[in-house]
Amino acid sequence: MKSSYTLALIAVISLLFAFGFSFKQTVHKYLSNSRSPCDAPLISAGWTGAPGDGSCANSGCHSGGINNGPGVSYLLIGNGDNLYSPGTTYLISLGLEQTDIDKFGFQITNRSSDTDQFEGDNDLTDPLRTRLISGGKYVGTNACGSDADSTGQIAWEFEWTAPDQYEGEITFYANFIATNHNHSSSGDDTYELEVILAPDGVNSISEIDPEEIQIFPNPVIQYIDIPVICEDVDFWKYEIFDLSGKTRINGTASCKIDVGELAKGYYLLKLVKGENIRVKKFFKLDQ
Whole-model pTM? Predict the structure, then answer.
């Protein structure tokens, strides 16, 4: 009889131990996969895909190849004409869109064709989400900068001032990641973009300050309003293209441009008047 009680006690203890172990593993798994805000790791410089740099896709920290995922990334420098003038400051906008992702990241730098090194100066416009790395030669996300603006999309901005003299063509290298944040290398996607800036050769002054051209609403559902060009619409042409570079709509600009036929996503609106070129990024919502 005593032996039966002993065996029963051992069985109960074994079940409790197994349940406790399973519960512990479940809790650990849940915590490991939780997506807390401002918890992204800080990545050192050198992961942009630039000459001499690595890439998140081939470092072992993220699986998959480069530009194989379903997401769409973009990199816009200044007004999008891909020219630079010595000493001029340009706003750099970049971002990534991928369905159901709420953790992203980026790192960017440049290389000059003349010096084979970084040129110019980077300055932060949003220090709560971006940071300077390696003495300012790189810009990347900080712990909070990886949290999606809304599920499936994110955007960042910073400023770059061109060097005081022409340094040949300057190529910007940007690396992006869309991560499921499961603390392993599986299930993530990596993207790379390059934008080459050529010397403009002249210091031209645009007829319309780029800050004066505003479009609204943004995000947009049906119509984009561009009030500043209403007085001379016959002189402005426009083109709307997606972030892969494919033209979606074009024509003579008016105070309102109908974008209702576009699918949801990021687009670039290019306005042209003679030699003046202005590019504005906008996000199209579903109707």
Answer: 0.61
